[in-house]
Amino acid sequence: MSDEVTPDEGEERDQHTPAEETAALLKEVSGVGADWRTALLVPALAVFTALVIGGLIIAVSDVELLRLWADSPGTAIAESWAVVSSAYGALFRGAFGGARAISETLLASSPLILAGLSVAVGFRAGLFNIGAQGQMLIGGMLATVIGFALEIPVFLHLPLALIGAMVGGAFWGGIPGWLRAKTGAHEVITTIMLNLIAVQFIDFLLTTEAIQRSGRDDPISKTVQISARLPRLLGFLDRNDLRVHAGIIVALLSAYGVYWILFRSTIGFQFRAIGRNPDGAKYAGMNVVGLYIGVMALAGALSGLAGANQILGVPEYRAAPGFAGSIGFDAIALALLGRSHPVGVVFAGLLFGALRAGGQQMQAAASTSIPIDIILVVQALIIAFIAAPALIRAIYRVKAADAGTGQLTQGWGS
Amino acid sequence: MTAAAATTEVILTPAQVRRARILGIVELALAAIVIVVFAIGSEGDGRFTLSQGGVDAPDLVFPAATVSYIVAILLAFLGARQVTRGFGDKANIVLGIALLLFIVAFLAWATAQSPTGQFNMTSMLKLTIERSVPIAFGALSGVLCERVAVINIAIEGMLLGGAFMAALVGSATNNVMGIVAGVATGAVLAWVLAVLSIKYRVDQIIAGVVINIFVLGLTSFLTVRLLAENPHLNNADVFRSWDIPLLSKIPVLGPVLFSHTLFVYGLFILVALTTWALFKTKWGLRSRAVGEHPKAADTLGVNVYRMRYLNVILGGMIAGFGGAWFTVGLVGRFDENMTNGRGFIGLAAMIFGRWHPVGAMAAALVFGFADAIAGKLGILQTGIPSQFLLMLPAIATIIVVAGLVGRSRPPAADGQPYIKE
Q1: Mind listing the pLDDT tens digit for each residue in B396-407?
Q2: Local structure of residue A225 (DSSP, 8 states)
């Protein structure tokens, strides 16, 4: 813990030119000026340790195995090893074993990258966006409606659906930004509550006549038309199981866009300024209210795209309750793992996509059938280790770069 | 601290004036809704039945339109006064009263509309108390932590973890052990929060989110892997409600307040106990000093870290106890993510209650009421889709947090790690 800067004092780094600032931030993402190997060491060890603990949980939660411990510990250890290795084997095969697995990993990565960018943008402005889930739902729903209701050519339809998703997400994300700026309501509480509201609202919409698929009693929307779907990237191979679609391109372009906005544009500089020191930004004459709304709207738009990904890119191309899944939570972990930098988020997103795709395989495989929820546990552990690098240093006795999160968010009063 | 703020006349900043106006406008808007939706459309009488559980009481019959007009006038008066003169530090209470009035008008309208034309008010209020239990425990947990300047976002995870372990241990042994397990789980999770945020100085909100995600993942994982295959491990005895002799026979009040499980009585006792302890004991004074000005407290010989560890773990135990309510206090079995955001609502109740145990309890009752209404209104067939009713607690939370967080002042050092020099 080298940099003991209390939030009140602000940071003097804001004084530098944007170019220097960018250089400093790039250094930060690659490891606070230390050489790059130690910089990657903490994230790598964090992921590794989290997987090890996940394995322990898998072994300990097996009732049969627990009984075996009493009789013959030796066999129990061997059996535990077998269970855990077959589980992680299935996970690895599901993530990287062959064309289909890699396609599934990329498929799972694209919404994760987009939602991760959403959380990362918030962090850069000192805001903790837990609302990716709700923003995904609202944005995705708007994309769904545009997708099934309009009959226009593909070069108009798909962009329109994506823009709709961004607008919906930006609206839902802008509300907590506005509330924060105007009333001081903390975004952690408001975004979580907006998630709960969005879940109910989507449940309601899915049962309305205009949206519900005709002839169905269960809450499922009408199917999005082909002209609004994200095209499959490997469609020319004529293999039905390669489902990776243009969403991954949308995600990568968005990552570049976020990079450009954050580090190359004036508004991005202002976003980061309110993150570092809101009072300073205010005295420098920045429109803090507008910036809070703007940054949350940007975050919401990114989440909205993530939501659209789940509808326009994934068969059956329709909305059902909970189509955002746990991506909103995953996004927090991967934004922290990627140090809130677009490049870091892309790599973290690919890793989490692999975990997700592999986790599904692990759950489906009859020999293992490990519930995919273990992935959430692993992700929580990753955040813990990334946020407290001292833990990792204590476990492995390494002298790693001290790139802790420090004070990222602000309390109620400020 | 709060006492000092309450007695001195404060000069309002422009932000406070604006906030007072916003609150006033919200109250005026409520008045408008009452007139347009409830008063004009209402016909006939509603009947609030008050008998419950063998305790008799006369019914309350009233013309719905008249009730709505009276409520609208009261709301308009409160709103107009709020806009013009403001209620100062009573604004919270006034908003609470305004929300209650609004709900009375709503219930009057809904009852008169419904096919049966009657609604059991006593059972509704009883349900309010029950539903406010986890929210109040969460809020109390938050009060203890934040009084020593540790933000506890992990209340949700502590409730969920407590609920899970209470179900598991309660099924394997008995429900008393279930409570013990729930409390212990809360303590362990709180200890983790304390280590992360006090020792490793991790951003407290991130530390809390880590715990929430961890508990959500682990309990869901174990539910599928362990409880689904061993249903006997997810079938705990539920505590039955216990009527307090004599008191439970009072009409209306008896069934509402004195015919509950030990969780409700435990909550009442705990609220009184923490209020006394926070404001009348050495421990309380030290806690508040640590939360307001840790450096000064340290200089005077208070062990800041020890106080923070102690209070956070106590807070975790309270949240774990509240979590046990979900399983051994209510349904006896654990379901994935069964707390469903109640911990966060508890956090909002803590803010609404201005970091005071009694205030937190009162705020929890407001949220409990919203929760209970969502549960009961299905019976009245109002034509409002159930999903909108289920949004009520969340919407109330946003209004409360947006309207009040700036007004009520958190402990001065809230959320900041302390570094001993």
Answers
A1: 888 877 765 555
A2: P
Q: How far apart are CA B18 and CA A249, in angstroms?
A: 46
Q: Which residue of A has its CA nearest to B203?
A: A407
Query: What percent of chain B is predicted at pLDDT more than 90?
Result: 37
Q: Best interface-test mutation with A: which of B192, B198, B200, B226 has the largest number of A CBs within 10 A?
A: B200
Q: How far is CA B306 from the centre of its chain?
A: 28
Task: Name the residue among B207, B345, B387 with its Cβ closest to that of A200.
Answer: B387
Burial of B277 (0-12, 13-18, 19+ CB in 10 A): middle
Q: Which of A178, A183, A386 to mutate to test the interface with B (most CBs of B within 10 A)?
A: A183
Please indicate if any CB of chain B lies within 8 Å of the CB of A206: no
pLDDT digits (tens, 9 = 90+) for B334-380: 999 899 889 988 988 888 788 899 999 998 998 888 888 877 777 77
**Contact (CB<8Å) A405/B397:** no
Q: Is the pLDDT of residue B154 over 90?
A: yes
Q: What is the mean pLDDT of chain B?
A: 85
Better pLDDT: B382 or B163: B163
Would you say the pTM of this structure is higher than 0.90? Answer: no
- Tokens matching residue A248: 């991954």
Chain A CB contacts of B229 under 8 Å are 63
Contacts of A387 in chain B (CB under 8 A): 196, 200, 202-203, 206-207, 210
How far apart are the CA of B223 and the nearest CA of chain A, in angstroms?
9
What chain B holds in terms of domains, given with CATH numbers, is 14-117 (no CATH), 123-404 (1.10.3470)
